[in-house]
Amino acid sequence: MTAAALPENILARMSAADRRALGVQTATEASEKVEARQEKALQAEIRKLLSYLRAKGECQYINPPMNRKSELPVGWPDFTIFLPGGRVLLIECKAAGGRLRQEQAETRIRMSAIGHEVHVARSFEEFHQLFSLL
């Protein structure tokens, strides 16, 4: 039996370092990796549009890099977008089946308590729809 053919229950009992050494991962790890790639691609699409709008003077935005520690609080939305008229749009990007982490859900509740909604965009079309409503 090859490492790639190990049953899920065996993989789950192995340390992450051992799985990496064998070049295998649990189904959950594989799923999280796919979701992370999808979220990264979605953020890139959104960033491209926002960069264009920023160059035209139509918005400003904050989108901290995913590969470095941010100065923003843990759980802060992926995009904080400042629009004309004092409007602010908070967007958390998620893959189609992705769920908010606990810190993200708590941030969403705290922001809602002071009158700011954190929107979840699972596709560029959803983002565009949210953006167009403002």
What does this structure look like?
This protein has 134 residues and is α+β, with helices and mostly antiparallel strands. The chain is 48% helix and 14% strand. It contains five helices and four strands. Strands 1-2-3-4 form a four-stranded mixed beta sheet. Strand 2 and strand 3 (87-93) form a beta hairpin. The protein is elongated and about 55 Å long. The mean pLDDT is 88.
Task: Give the topology.
Elements lengths: L7 H6 L2 H7 L4 H29 L4 E3 L16 E5 L3 E7 L8 H12 L4 E4 L2 H10 L1
Parallel strand pairs: 3-4
Antiparallel strand pairs: 1-2, 2-3
Give the helix level as a range of percent.
40-55%
- Sketch the major β-sheet: 4 strands, mixed
Total count of helical runs of at least 4 residues: 5
Strand order of the largest sheet: 1-2-3-4
What Rg, in angstroms, do the CA atoms define? 18 Å
Number of strands: 4
| Global shape | elongated
Structural class designation: alpha+beta
- List low-pLDDT spans: none
What is the residue-mean pLDDT, rounded to a whole number? Answer: 88
**SSE topology string:** HHHEEEHEH
- Measured distance between first and last alpha carbons: 56 Å
- Provide the β-strand percentage band: 5-15%
